[in-house]
Amino acid sequence: MLDTTQFNELKASGNLPSPSGTALKILQLCQRDNVTLTEIIHVLQVDPVMVGRILKLANSAAYGRPRPVIALTPDILMSIGIQGVRQVVLVFSLVSAHRQGHCPAFNYDEFWSRSVATGVAARLMGTVTRLAPPSELFTVGLLANIGRLALASLRPERYGALLAEAGGPFAPTLSELEATTFGFTQLEVGTAMMRDWGLPKLFTDAVLYHEAPEKSPFQPGSRGAKLVDCLHFADHFASLCFMKDGPRRAGLAELLLLANKLDVADDAVLALSDEILGEWREWSAMLTVPVHELTTFTTLANSPAAKEIKTHADPAFPLNILVVDDEPTMCLMLQKLLTAMGHTVHVARDGTEGLNMALKHQPHIVITDLMMPRGDGFALIQNLRSHQFGHYVYLVVITVLGDHDNLARAFELGADDYMAKPIETKVLQARLRAGIRVIHEHDKLRKDQQELQHRVLELTIANQHSSEAALTDVLTGLHNRRYAMERLTQEWAKTERSQRPVSLLMLDIDHFKQVNDNFGHAVGDAILRQFADVLRSFARTEDVPCRFGGEEFLLIAPDTNLKGAQQLAERIRSAIENKPFVIARGVLPVTVSIGVAEKTAHQNNLETWIKAADDALYSAKKSGRNRVSVHAI
I need a surface site. Which of 112, 448, 483, 497 has the fewest CB within 10 A? Predict the structure, then answer.
C-alpha cells in the first residue's frame, strides 16, 4: 500500500504529472471559501488558450445555450460552477502538458483517448442516475486511471517492461505486477494524486475500488457504492471503444448488466451508449485528443450476428452467472447453453475458486455441484450466505436424481433451487426464469430502500442549505449579523483558551443615508454590494467579513493584534476612498469610517469587546469620518 510518506517522496521527485501555471493558480484560488468569480476570471485571462477552451466547454451541447458565448463572464463561470471550473482547468492542464513522455511502451494518445471516453461515460451515466454534478463526474472518470500515466512518468523503463509482461496498460494482471514491483498500484498513486489536488474523498475512494467493486467498503445501495459501479461501467465502456465489432458485440452483454446494477434499462443503455460516443468525439476535439470512428451500439445490437446470438436468449433480463463444477464437460455444456441464451458466464472448478470468483464478479445466479474434491458446494453455499451481497444471490445446486439427504442439507444451508443430472435445456431455462423472478423482487426491495435513503439525503441537504441561507446576507453574499455573533462568541472562547490575539474591525459607510435619499435604494444596494466585494478581497482565508446591518460591516481577524488590525483597516479605508463606485449616472465617491479593537484581558465579556470597536468607530466618525480609529487599551 502507498502511505503518505511514500507519496510525498514521489511528489518530491518532481516527476509526477501535475498542473502548472494558470491551472495551479486556479486550484489554489478555489481552495478559498470566499473566492469570487471575478478573481478567477482575472487569473484565467492571462492564459488565452485556457479561456478559449472554457468558452468551448460553455458552448458545448452539455450546457444547451440558445446562443454561443464569446467572452468569459461571471455568469458563464457561474453556470459551470466554481468546483466545475477548478476541475475542468485541472483536466485541460494535465492533458495539454502530458501528451508524450519517456516510456516508449506507453501509448500516450490512446491513454488520453480512453480516459476521455471513461470521463464522458461516467458523466452521462452519473447524470442519468443523479449521482453527482456532471462536470465533477467527467473529471473523476477522466482521472480514474491517471496513476498509469504517473508510473510511466516515474519509472518509464521499469513500467514499460511491466506493460510488455502483462500485455498492455489495461491488462487484468497488471495491478498485481505493479504491487509486486513497486509496493503499490497505479490506483493507489492515482487516488493519492487526486486527493492532493483537492478532489473529495468520496470520489477518490470510488476511483480506488472501481476496477474491483466487490472489494469496495461502501454499503450496497449507498451513494459511494453507486459511484464505484458508475466508474466500473465507464471503464468497461471505454475498453469496448478500443475493440473490433465482434468483441464489442460480445462485451455489450456485460455492459448491459453493469447498467442494470444502476437501474438503467437495456433500451436506455443503447441510446445512452450512442450519446456517449457522440460526446466522446466532441470532448476529444476540445482537448485535441485523437479519436476513431465506431459502429454505434444500437447498430451492433440489431445486427444479424447479434440476433443469431439472441435466438435462445431471454431478452428481458440478461444474467451474470457463475458455474462451479469439477467436471470439465459439465462446465463446457452449461457455459455454451447459458451464453447462447444471452447471459454472461464465469466458470470455476471447485468451491474455493468459486467463492473467489463470486466475490470478484458478484453474479446474479450461482449454479454449483455439491460434491467436489477441493471446497465442496456445501461450504460454498455457507460462505456465500455469510457475505452481504451473497444474501441476494440465487443459488441452484446440481445433484444426482434421488440424492435426498444432500439436497436437504443444501436447502438448510441456503440453496434456492436444484437441477438433477443430466441437465435438460428446458429445465435449465425454467430454473433461470424462477431465479429472475426472485432477483427482480430483491432488486425492487433494494430500489425502495435506495429511494428512501435518497429522500433522506435530499432532506438533509435541503436542511443544510436552509441553515446556510439563514446565516447569509442575501444582498451582499457576506455572513449576516446572526452568523457574526455566533462567530464572535467562538473566537472569544477560543482566545480565552489559547491567549492568541484576535481583533475586530467595525466599518460604517460615510453619509450612506444621503446616497439613498439622493439616488434611491437601488443605487444604495449597488454601493453595498461593491463595498462588500472590496471587503471580501482584503480578507484572508481565516478572516470573517460580515454585514452587521444597514451600512455597517464587521471584519473578524483571528491571530491579529491591534497594530496588524490597524494596518489592515487603513488599507481597506484607502482602497474604498480610491475605488470608483460605479452607478448609472457615473461614478460616486465613497468613504468609510473604521473602528478597531483587539480583545484584551481587561474586557469582561463579548459585549465589552464589541462596544470597544463601536466606540472606536464613533470616534472615527466624530473626528471627521474617512479615517481609522483604534480603541485604546
Answer: 497
Distance (Å, whole) CA 231 – CA 405? 45
367-403 pLDDT tens trace: 999 888 778 899 999 999 988 878 889 999 988 767 7
Between CA 471 and CA 476, with CA 474 as vertex, the angle to 5 degrees is 105
Q: How far apart are CA 141 and CA 119, in angstroms?
A: 4
Residue bearing cell 464572535: 488
Residues 6+ apart with CB under 8 A from 439: 317, 319, 364, 365, 392, 394
Q: Is the pLDDT reported for residue 461 higher than 60?
A: no
Collapse the DSSP code of 304 into the 3-class scheme (helix H, G, I; strand E, B; otherwise coil) and give the result: helix
Going along the chain from its start, the domains and CATH numbers come out as 4-17+98-300 (1.10.3210.10), 313-444 (3.40.50.2300), 481-630 (3.30.70.270)
Q: How far is CA 111 from CA 143, 169, 295, 296, 441, in A?
A: 11, 9, 21, 22, 41
Grid cell locating 273: 451508449
pLDDT tens for residues 229-257? 999 999 999 999 998 887 777 677 678 77
Dihedral sign, Cα of residue 127, residue 132, residue 133, residue 135? negative
In this structure, are strands 417-421 and 628-630 parallel, antiparallel, or unpaired?
Answer: unpaired
602 phi and psi angles, rounded to 5 deg:
-75, -15
Top pLDDT among 146 and 20 is at 146
Given a cut of 50, whether residue 139 has pLDDT beyond it is yes
Lowest model confidence (mean pLDDT) among 310-324, 422-436, 556-570: 310-324
pLDDT of residue 504: 95
* 157 tagged catalytic: no
Find residue 365's DSSP bridge partners: 321, 394
Give the pLDDT mean for 576-593.
89
DSSP string, 88-157: HHHHHHHHHH-S--S-TTS-HHHHHHHHHHHHHHHHHHHHHHT-S-HHHHHHHHHTTTHHHHHHHHHSHH
For residues 503 and 291, what is the distance between their CA atoms, to the nearest angstrom?
A: 58
State the alpha helices, DSSP H only, in 130-261: 134-142, 146-154, 156-166, 174-182, 186-196, 201-209, 223-240, 245-261
3-state secondary structure of 56: helix
Q: Which three cell numbers stand for residue 549?
A: 446591518
Minimal CA–CA distance to 306: which of 337, 275, 282, 342? Answer: 342
User: Which cell numbers in the block locate residue 448?
Assistant: 425502495
Place of cell 469439477: 326
Residue 1's pLDDT is 67
Mean pLDDT of 71-98: 80
The CA distance from 622 to 617, in Å, is 9
Alpha-carbon span 310 to 296, nearest angstrom: 19
Q: How many Å apart are CA 390 and CA 37, to the nearest integer?
A: 50
- Average pLDDT, rounded, for the chain: 85
Q: What is the DSSP letter of 403?
A: -
- In this prediction, residue 552 has a pLDDT band, given cuts at 50, 70 and 90, of very high
Whole-angstrom Cα distance, residue 457 to residue 241? 35
- Which DSSP category does 34 fall into? T
Which is catalytic among the residues 211, 279, 551, 598? Answer: 551
18 burial level (CB within 10 Å; 0-12, 13-18, 19+): buried
Total-model pTM? 0.52
Cis preceding linkage at 169, omega within 30: no
Q: What is the residue type of 459? A: L
Whether the pLDDT of residue 340 is over 80: the answer is no
How far, CA to CA in Å, does 547 sit from each of 373, 509, 519?
77, 12, 22
